[in-house]
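S.,

Sequence below, as promised.
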Amino acid sequence: MTATSHGPATTGRVVPLGGPWPGVGPFLFTAYHLDAYPAGNADLGPAEGVAGHAIGQDFGHPSGWNMYHGDTVPGFPAHPHRGFETITIVRQGIVDHADSTGAAARYGQGDVQWVTAGSGVVHSEMFPLLNSESDNPFELYQIWINLPAVSKMADPEFTMMWNEQLPVVESDGVQVRVIAGSFGDAEALGAPVASWASRPEADVTILLIDLEPNASITLPATGSDRTERMLYVHGAGGVDAGGNVVASGEGFAPDGTGEVTITAGEAPSVVLLLQGVAIGEPVAQAGPFVMNNRAELVQAYEDYQRTQFGGWPWPSTAPVHPADADRFAVFGDGRREEPAAR
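The prediction came back faster than expected:
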């Protein structure tokens, strides 16, 4: 990485991004999945078969693709959440969603889904391999962001942010997709009402930044002196972040809240920016539940065992939609939504 910073020097710490990427502020962590899936079969699973994959617990397979918890189609069959939100960004491939409210969706190709688990939801996230003639590359980020105590028992819901409607800023070899907060004059579509991100004082910003070789971008100062932020660098090459060499597969947490200039090296790079003010409450996490104390975690497990968070209305724990279905969302109230042209 040979880039040279063009902005003021920035101090901070460089951190490795092995496994789940560490969170800052209100963010718990980010899971990043990059899979070189082969062509699909009639069941929308891998045509070459799954021999050698640890079905039900397939992570980090040397083939370059994983079944995760799926047995026929890759993905994550029905599982519960309570007390936080997931923000899922799909750069390549398709996700089929189904949940305990009766809602369903097929999304991908740049779409974002924001799920408020709140008081409790069961959902499945499957990755159907729709292309039977060639490979099915897949790339997904899932960001876990905490909910404040006042919102942990909010009604569960999900919001779709279709690729065609997401604000995008492009200039001089840089593309910025604004998922939360703002960048320049571009404002995000808006967070769910119960979200910490819906509060202006929380200063939550999520940007997905693509940099061509040697391209540069300056991130403005944060909106609060209590804001924390992390740059997650991945892609073909690393970056210079305010005079700090940050390789692909590393993160950079700036000290302070001033401007940070990011410059790519000789290869293109991708930077996910997460920033926000910490909620400032105790965090108690056990598996799929994030509460404020152990007693609330025990209650979450008891509630799930007793009620299944409303039950599971689907005939399978890993439902996938028809192979010829386009992107869509159906919400718990029956409302249907499809992406509109940009």
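DSSP finds one helix and 27 strands in the chain.

Coffee later?
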